[in-house]
Amino acid sequence: MRLGGKRALVTGGSDGIGLAIAEAFLREGADVLIVGRDGKKLDAARKQLGDNVDTLSADLSASAGIDAVVEHARRGPPVDILVNNAGVAFLVPFETVSEDQFQQSFALNVTAVFFLTQRLLPHLAPGAASVINISSYFAHKMIPKRPSSLYSLSKGALNSLTKSLAFELGPRGIRVNAIAPGTVDTAMRRRSIENLPEAAQAELKAYVERSYPLGRIGWTSDLAGIAVYLASDEAA
Ligand SMILES: NC(=O)c1ccc[n+]([C@@H]2O[C@H](COP(=O)([O-])OP(=O)(O)OC[C@H]3O[C@@H](n4cnc5c(N)ncnc54)[C@H](OP(=O)(O)O)[C@@H]3O)[C@@H](O)[C@H]2O)c1
Fold this sequence. Notes:
By secondary structure, the chain is of the alpha/beta class. Helix content is 46%, strand content 12%. The chain contains eight helices and six strands; from the N terminus they run βαβαβαβαβαβααα. The structure holds NADP nicotinamide-adenine-dinucleotide phosphate.
């Protein structure tokens, strides 16, 4: 068990990539708290993960939600692993991005990561904690006909935050890393293509098959191994 005795908090752990990471952490012996908004999704995740998982419903795009998570986490032992995974993607043309979409993206993809990590700092395990931010390849790689100005901007900001925190928190023994997945088959991905015309969906599929080394998009389970590694003492 590579994470035995460790306590992990996974935001957005009720679905997609976060759920796969939570599942792998539990398998490796960690105590896991998952956070999402929708109680039904959290219940479904608990059914899948087992009663050992702790769940909390909170909206991290609002400061009250961040407060609720911090308060809940502080009631237990120190947190060894924080996975800032919850995120939102509006892959819409630059000229149509609304101020509301802009605020939502930054509130969840950047502000929540910043302040959740800051406010949990006193409760992170001294000397060996690991913070893992889930970024995206869209921070640095664009895809033809996939307008990503807002999403790329928010994930680029997350990458900068990750690098600067690695330097600021490293001397305290807190590691900060990011994982930047390519396209992964999740509800987020399906939402982002469902409104594309059929021809555009086919074109995207062909592009992926051409440009991804394995000729397929990622599965959520593909992300579990790297997350377990970064969370474990092997990555010290
Ligand atoms: N899928 C991809 O192709 C891909 C590629 C690269 C990077 N990523 C990144 O990977 C991360 C996870 O994406 P995913 O595809 O797994 O998404 P997903 O399947 O849509 O799952 C998102 C998770 O986050 C939770 N969540 C969403 N908004 C929240 C909020 N305001 N407060 C608290 N929890 C919230 C959701 O639960 P509720 O809806 O119940 O709140 C759910 O548990 C994101 O940061 C995304 O940018 C995804």
